[in-house]
Write a structure and sequence with these properties.
heterodimer; A: alpha+beta; 11-stranded mixed beta sheet; B: mainly alpha; two-stranded antiparallel sheet; 4 strands
């Protein structure tokens, strides 16, 4: 009997599947699934991707790095410190509640209590509700990146998250460990509603029927997201048709995905710079700018992009990529072995020296291979490198301890702005201000001064000039070894219009995705 | 006898203590779990605060006694990745692994028996030669590679089998703990490739084992006598020879399934199979030390339990073991 029931049940499931196949379902295979449904508990790429599917920000970035109105329809500067946002009317949350200014303020105040976001929100004074659809956002000091930050202001449904859950705990608790309502329940204004979630197995989202953006061309009615961790399996799942969309595509499989006639490969250059830092506190020789220049000249980053990254990265000579305010056209890659050798000779290190180097082997695309290549290249100017690569779980502890003379670090600017790189990677390390948190041993007061000046400069042209000056100084100083900006890579079936919905941040806007 | 049982149980407890201690002492080498819980811009001071709250900064002995105390109450700590009690995470993921092992065992039984017997009976036939050379290949290929080759052959090129995951599952007891793939067509299709790759390690071994055991048995006097008696070949092979072949094979089978369990880790990774091996790798990679220790304790516990029970049963059956033990 039980068997019969099960049989009938499975038959029913099979039938219901075939019926719903008419709707546009997108099966997505990513390397990991979002860790929770709470957009404010962890600041990570995966969580921000989810935030753009289930929630909406006030404004969002376009592919051209301009701002696009979402929940805010208009914004204007009232004075140096204040920006007034006019909010969209007639927007519904998934719960059915109506979106108003109080939700923006509530979400902002909640975000402040999250350890991951509070650093980002440090420049802000707070939000003031003017009326139901107008809100003023105030900063402590003049702050040029207010709009950049507004891309993080996702509106959560204040009514939905108010009260206590079954355990008697407030529903709005921001909890990393332990059960909390917000970790497993979500009500946003976004194009998709999370309907089923099993951590590490599947996340199912359904198009929200009352979504405000009726002009969006997006026609995906359902998304089934499964994490597929192993690179080869993820690619195989796409090629076999088990999933429709994958990311990332590992470089070694680019040509296979590209040459298949049922699927296509789409790349977009990203904002994550991969670098090596030279620790001047550990190595006397690194204090000599000629030695640092020699190292930068000895590293053939163009070759690395071609050979190891298979052309799917952009060679870098500065921190921020093209499109960022600080980008300076004249700063070009400078591989020149002869010059590197000459510089070493000038500095009196013709015979070279020995250094230690560390890199992760599961954090950035081909990180260990890149480190091996760089170590080999430095061998040519007689710098003997003792390389150690390790999983990121161990690497970060080593990095915190600045345990090697040269360490690999990749950085993506949270604000999509050049200044952020300098704040974290290049400003002199300072425990109190938190600046230079990921700087291992380079310190130049001039860079500090300029970076801080750029933070409060609201004239965008002047600001860009300052940021470009910083890039020039770092270039002349050979402050770090620039390698490349990683591309984001997507594989998808031919009928899926991937190009219009991707961007530098790697937040595919599935709400606007068109399946032909 | 009573003293023997007590001694065995005490030994088991000591083994468990040692294993949990080893797990505890390597945990600081695995990495910092806080790193995985926070974004990159969270300062070291804030990370230290979180670690404090989680009790990760307490001295080793305090942490360990706390763990043992909780463990005795059945609480093996809380998994950071899954944000649930570690024991529950393991119990929920165990059925996937068990089903993988069942499927593998079925393949091994139904493939190795006929092939092994056939190659024992007709060692010179083309089929047996083929089986033998193919099984050498199977033995020498790493399971990881076998799995990927199978995926590319059956999922990508032929497109007849799914490439990853468990497919449709049915909740067996209605409480969400045991989701089985055996009861749906889709679930069974998803089982084929992982089970095939997992069995590829043990299958050649069993074919060879059955073959050599059977050939040995076929040479014995009683088989010759049976031939002389004029029994039908089918009866001689299947009843007289085969039955006696089976005994050592079953013993080895039990041991080998334990080893196969270790290989599920890689198989599960390749097929995105949400079993115990998969969560083990996740725990290592994302330094979920609670889950890692719980995993070690649970797996060791199962092995210790099985061994202890077997030893005690042996003690009942074979008194010499008991006596040897009293020395």
């Amino acid at each position: 009997m039980k068997k019969l029931v099960l049989l009938a049940l499975s038959l029913f499931l099979v039938i219901s599947f075939t019926v719903s196949a008419g709707a546009k379902t997108l099966k997505v295979g990513l390397d990991a699934d979002p860790v929770s449904l709470d957009p404010q508990v962890q600041l990570s790429g995966g969580m921000l991707q989810l935030s753009h599917w289930v929630f909406d920000p006030l404004v969002r970035w376009t592919q051209e790095m301009t701002f696009e109105p979402r929940l805010a329809t208009k914004w204007e500067r009232l004075d140096e410190l204040t920006m007034r946002f006019t909010l969209r009317q007639g927007v519904k949350f998934h719960s059915g509640n109506t979106f108003t200014a109080k939700d923006v303020k509530w979400s902002f105040d909640r975000m402040r209590t999250s350890v991951d976001f509070k650093g980002l929100l440090d420049p802000f004074e707070g939000c003031t509700i003017v009326d139901d659809y107008t809100i003023d956002v105030k900063t402590k000091k003049p702050y040029a990146l207010l709009l950049n930050m507004a891309t993080y202001f996702f509106a959560m449904d204040s009514e939905f998250y108010t009260g206590t859950d079954a355990n008697g705990q407030p529903k709005d608790a921001v909890l990393k460990i332990g059960e909390s309502f917000a970790l497993n329940n979500a009500s946003g204004t976004g194009p998709f509603r999370a309907i089923k979630r099993e951590l590490g197995v599947v996340l199912e989202m359904e198009r929200f029927a009352d979504y405000w953006d009726t002009k969006s061309p997006g026609n995906v009615t359902k998304i089934i997201l499964t994490p597929i961790k192993e690179n080869a399996t993820r690619v195989a799942a796409l090629l076999s048709g088990d999933v429709d969309f994958i990311s990332p595509v590992p470089p070694q499989d680019f040509s296979r995905v590209d040459s298949d006639d049922k699927v296509k490969l789409v790349n977009i250059s990203g904002g994550r710079i991969i670098t090596f830092q030279m620790n001047q506190n550990r190595v006397e020789a690194f204090k000599d700018v000629r030695v640092r220049q020699a190292i930068v000249h000895a590293v053939n980053n163009t070759g690395i992009v071609k050979q190891i990254m298979k052309g799917t990265a952009t060679v870098a000579a500065q921190q921020g990529p093209r499109g960022y305010a600080g980008y300076k056209e004249t700063l070009v890659p400078r591989y020149d072995l002869a010059k590197a050798k000459m510089l070493m000779k000038e500095a009196g290190y013709e015979k070279g020296f020995e250094v230690t180097m560390m890199a992760p082997n599961d954090r950035y695309v081909n990180d260990a291979k890149i480190a091996e290549a760089v170590a080999q290249m430095l061998g040519k100017i007689n710098i003997k490198v003792h390389l150690k690569t390790m999983p990121k779980a161990q690497y970060w502890n080593e990095f915190d301890a600045r345990a090697a003379d040269m360490m690999m670090i990749g950085w993506h600017s949270d604000t999509e702005d050049s200044g952020n790189f300098s704040e974290f990677l290049m400003m002199c390390g300072n425990k109190e201000t938190g600046m230079g948190q990921y700087n291992s041993g380079y310190c130049n007061p001039k860079v500090d001064e300029l970076t801080l000046a750029a933070q409060s400069e609201t004239n965008l042209e002047k600001r860009a000039a300052i940021l470009q000056e910083i890039e020039q100084i770092l270039y002349d100083d050979a402050a770090f070894v620039p390698l490349h900006w990683q591309n984001h890579s997507y594989g998808a079936k031919k009928n899926i219009q991937v190009k219009p919905i991707i961007n530098v941040m790697n937040f595919p806007y599935f709400g606007d995705l068109v399946i032909e | 006898m009573f003293a023997f049982i007590i001694r065995r149980i005490l030994q088991a407890i000591v083994v468990m203590m040692v294993i949990s201690l080893v797990g505890f002492s390597i945990k600081s080498k695995i990495g910092d779990p806080v790193r995985d819980l926070v974004g990159e811009r969270v300062t070291p001071e804030e990370r230290a605060q979180i670690a404090d709250k989680m009790g990760l900064n307490d001295p080793f002995l305090i942490q360990y006694t706390r763990f043992v105390k909780q463990a005795l109450k059945g609480d093996l700590g809380r998994s950071f990745i899954y944000n649930k009690p570690a024991l529950e995470v393991i119990v929920r993921h165990a059925p996937a692994t068990i089903e993988l092992l069942i499927g593998t065992a079925l393949i091994i039984i139904f493939v190795s028996l006929p092939l092994g017997i056939q190659s024992a009976l007709q060692p010179r036939s083309i089929l047996s030669r083929f089986t033998m050379s193919f099984s050498t290949l199977g033995v020498s290929m790493p399971v990881f590679l076998t799995a990927i080759l199978l995926i590319y052959l059956f999922a990508v090129n032929l497109q007849i089998l799914p490439s990853y995951g468990r497919g449709e599952t049915v909740d067996l007891f209605g409480n969400g703990y045991w989701k089985t793939g055996f009861l749906t067509h889709d679930g069974r299709l998803h089982l084929i490739l992982p089970c095939l790759s997992l069995s590829s390690i043990m299958l050649p071994l069993f074919i060879r084992l059955i073959r050599s055991e059977m050939m040995e048995v076929l040479e014995t006097e009683y088989i010759k006598y049976a031939w002389a008696k004029g029994l039908s070949p089918a009866r001689i092979w299947m009843v007289h020879a085969f039955k006696n072949t089976l005994l050592p094979v079953i013993t080895v089978f039990g041991v080998q399934m334990g080893i196969t369990f270790a290989f599920t880790i890689l198989t599960e990774l390749v097929f995105q199979w949400q079993g115990m091996g998969f969560i083990f790798l996740e725990a290592v990679e994302r330094s979920d030390i609670s889950l890692l220790i719980a995993y070690l304790v649970v797996v060791a516990g199962v092995f210790v339990l099985v061994n202890t029970v077997v030893d005690i049963i042996y003690g009942f059956i074979n008194p010499t073991i008991r006596i040897a033990g009293t020395r």
